[in-house]
Amino acid sequence: MTTTERREPALTADERTMLEGWLDYHRQTLAWKCEGLTDEQLRTASTPPSDLTLLGLVRHMADVERSWFRRVLAGEDAGPIYYDEADPDGDFHVTGTDTWAEAHATWQAEIEAARRLSAGVGLDDLSKGRSRSSDEPFSLRWIYTHMIEEYARHNGHADLIRQRLDGATGD
């Protein structure tokens, strides 16, 4: 596992740079929370009855990146990675064979796709696709803001899971 470099977002910047900086910061924070742990630790649930794990959070965020940037923003026909109709929470349902290497590579590929697809799109430009919950288009600004919120919420979960695993804390 490599050492995650977290870059603090700019204190003064234009809106797009600020939004992208905070999104990257939260992406890096989730990777940092997983750093140095074994696959077994990454598959360890937070506390019964929850089955929430760090590996499940990474898999979930891979699907979230895919959904908002590929399906909604770009209008691609990109199906889910880890869940399906039979198991709508499949991204969180890890097994003994699920690994950090696979989940991390998939997550990073979806992040790179998100960066590629949002490059050149204006903050006020509307999505080509729609979400599962709305038939309305979304601006890139809304998608960035939502993604920051999604990561921030789950990074709170990751912080608690990590503390339970080995006592490590931090923002």
What is the global morphology?
A: globular
Helix content: 40-55%
Q: Please identify the top-level CATH class.
A: Mainly Alpha
Tell me the strand percentage band.
under 5%
What does this protein look like?
By secondary structure, the protein is an all-alpha fold. The mean pLDDT is 95. Helix 3 runs parallel beside helix 4. The protein is built from 5 helices and no strands. The chain has one domain: Up-down Bundle (Four Helix Bundle (Hemerythrin (Met), subunit A)).
Describe the structure concisely.
The protein is mostly helical and 171 residues long.
Topology:
Elements: H1 15-34, H2 39-42, H3 54-73, H4 100-118, H5 140-166
Helix pairs in contact: 1-3, 1-5, 3-4, 3-5
Descriptive tags:
171 residues; Four Helix Bundle (Hemerythrin (Met), subunit A); single chain; globular; mainly alpha
